[in-house]
Structure formats: C-alpha cells, structure tokens
Amino acid sequence: MSRNAEVASRARQARGQREAADARLPRIDRRRLGDLAYEEVRKRIVSGDFPMGSRLNEVRLANDLGVSRAPVREALRRLSEEGLVVERPHLGAVVRELDASSLIDLYNVRAALERLAIRLATRQRMDTKPLRALIRRMSAAAASADYALVARYELDFHSVITNNSGNALLIGIFHALEGQVLMGLALDDSGYPDLEEVAREHQPLVDVIESGDEHAAAEMMQAHVLSTVGNLIARLGGSPGGLIPAKD
Question: What is the CATH number of the domain that holds 139?
Fold first, then answer.
C-alpha cells in the first residue's frame, strides 16, 4: 500500500470511529422510569383496572413494567401524595377506597373550586367549542355503554373550564385532585340508568357560559356537581346532608 493510500485508510477509520461515537444512544434517565411507572399505574387505578381496595405489590408491578422496584416505589409514593393510594399495615400499598365520608369531602371541595372556575371562565368569555366537542364525545361513549370513557370525557369537560379560568393557583389545585375526581365520576356515573343523560346534563353549562351571566353559571355548576352524588353517598351508607347545597 502506498503512503498516500495508508494515510487515507487511517483517515476513514478515524472518521468511522467518530461517527459511531456520535451515534451512541443517550443514557436513559432513571427519573424518567419513575414517571413512566407513575403514569401507567395511575392510569390503571383511575380506569378501574386496579379496583379500589386492591393491593399494589411492588415486585409484581416491577415485573409487569419491566423495571426495577425503585421506579415503582417512587410511583407509589407519588400516588399516595395524590390521594389515590394508601398504606395499610401488613398489606403495603392499596388503591384508595372512596367511602361516603371521603366522597362528601371531595365533592364539597370540588363544587367550591368549580363554582369559582366557571365564574372566572364565563367572565373571560371562554371559547365553548371544545366543550361542545366533549359533549359529543360523551354521547358517543354513552351510546357504547363505555362508563370509563364517559367519565374521562366528563373530567376533560370540567378541566377545560378550569383551565380557562385564568387562575393558575385554582388550576393547580384542581389538577392535583383530578385522579380522585375521576374515580368519583366513575362511581357516580355507574348509577345512571341512562348513561346518555350524563352528556345531556352538560349542555346547560355551555349555554350559561355563553350567556355571560357568571353568577348564574356559578350556581348552576355547584348544583350540577352535587346533583347525583347524594344518591351515591346514600348507596354507600352515608348521609347526603353533609353536602353543602348551591344555596345555603
């Protein structure tokens, strides 16, 4: 091999090594594994795949997700902070059960938050087209008797209103409660003999927002949030009298 050919060959080899080094995959952030585990377990809880009261075994979850126990442990800690998981003696992590007392607490707080949210959103003349689209999706899911999907779209409807309130603190508080709210909606919707009624009940909220009457919107939202949960609380052996009515 000539001197020039040898130099060219070495240059190609060096270039190939640089390209291989440049093409290396980035390291997987271990914190991201915790996020993925959290998102997957949370999804299973709020959808009902992991029923209320069911045990969440770290080892089994880690095996199912194909990760070590550390990300699962971190996910369960976050879910506990969110109020979706509780620690029980001799059992460990368990999906929280919404009893009558906890539903009263949740719905009183939810009604107060959403009363303020719709008032602010109405004042700001929010665009209601996304709300109308969600009602159509609710109706389609109801026609398929998909309770979980109806509840998901129902939560999205209320989230859109809250997100249009313009109040960052209110938005943050509501989103922190979303998991519990979704569990409550799924329980509440299960008591409807006509699931499509869930979709129809949301149309007056759109109408009152479009009217611009923020006070009427606030009253209607509180009445809407509390309209059927009293029956659920009674079915669970509690007293609906603990709910704060729209006009007290």
Answer: 1.20.120.530
